[in-house]
């Protein structure tokens, strides 16, 4: 920023000063006009410089704001991704526990079913064995009764000694 004053008026002012005389009013007015022009020029340049500084500072603030928004967005995205990962991990762990519990419960139920089936089959076999044994016993008793009745017909005296002995022997076999 330079003062733009006419050389002629400055020279005249210096010349009058050197003579130590009072300057002429025209010279004072010229000097005052030159100084006022210089002040206006400095004011305009200062305003322009301040306006440029304001614009630069606004641009810097906007750039800083954008940078901070990007950092915040990235930090937020990272936090959300970490929470999503944590949720997914917990879900998978719970799912695995549920599957393990379900598998253990199924194995327990299958074991109970197998045990019940075996118990049923054992009881059924036991019942069949008892029925079969009862049938054999009844057949044996029927055969014994037939034999007793056959031997009583052979013997002349139904209550005789031989009949009693055979009966005892037949009862001992059963």
UniProtKB/TrEMBL annotation:
Q: Which residues form a coiled coil?
A: 36-112
* Protein name per UniProt: Uncharacterized protein
Q: Which organism is it from?
A: Effrenium voratum
Which residue intervals make up region (Disordered)? 136-159
Its keywords, alphabetically, are: Coiled coil
Question: Which portions of the chain have biased composition (kind: Basic and acidic residues)?
Answer: 136-149
Classification of source organism = Eukaryota, Sar, Alveolata, Dinophyceae, Suessiales
